[in-house]
Every structure is written in C-alpha cells, then in structure tokens.
Design goal:
Paired_dom; rod-shaped; mainly alpha; single chain; 0% strand; 119 residues
C-alpha cells in the first residue's frame, strides 16, 4: 500500500481549486490524478482539512466472543464438522463463512480430527 501524498501538496491543490481553477487543470499542473484533486477538494469543503484519513488497521475477530461456546461444542461433539459448527453459530445469530470458522480454529489451536486408526 502506498503512502498518502503530502499535506502541503494537497493544500496547494485545494487552494488552486478554491481560487477558481478547474480540477482538471490543477491536476495536470501538480501532476496528480483528477479524482484525487476532486476528493481533496470535497474533503476540504466538508471537514476543513486536507489531511488523509486513517489507513490500514486490524479488523476485529468476529468469533472471539464465541470462543468458549466453540471450545465446548468441540469437546462435547468431537465428530462435529466445520459446516455443522457454522450452522450452530448461525442459529445463535452469527453469520460467518466456512473459511472464517476454519481460520479461527487454526489460530486458537482448537483441533478436531476424525481418526479411526487411533483409539
């Protein structure tokens, strides 16, 4: 992911647009995309600042509040499949994908394997 352009450049672009120059001509003069000039101008009019918004960050883990429930279900029913666990979570109002359940189980170290060779 690239870094945002400097606030100085953003301010000069917005000042030129506020002075009456078109977004296209300002974008060509400063070497930025027309869409950037338009968005910076809109941001300045709405918030009074040309500073970029927050970039990146981490998403909250959707299944974290249900860790105890998931661990209990796996201990009670070791032959429970991922799809079955997903359906039980859906019954509790948590709509997640099969992959989300799988990644959560791997990350938490909760494993259940159907192995008939070992007792």
């Amino acid at each position: 992911m690239t870094r945002p352009l400097s606030n100085d450049l953003r301010k000069r672009v917005v000042d030129a647009i506020e002075a009456g120059e078109s977004c296209r001509s300002v974008a060509v003069r400063f070497g930025v995309a027309v869409s950037s000039a338009v968005k910076w101008s809109q941001r300045y009019r709405s918030s009074g600042s040309v500073a970029p918004g927050k970039m990146g960050g981490h998403r909250k883990r959707v299944l974290e509040p249900y860790r105890a429930f998931i661990a209990e279900r796996i201990n009670q029913t070791p032959h429970l499949s991922l799809h079955g666990l997903k359906e039980e979570l859906a019954a509790r109002g948590v709509k997640v994908s099969h992959d989300t359940v799988w990644q959560f189980l791997r990350r938490e170290g909760l494993r259940f394997k159907k192995n008939t060779v070992r007792p």
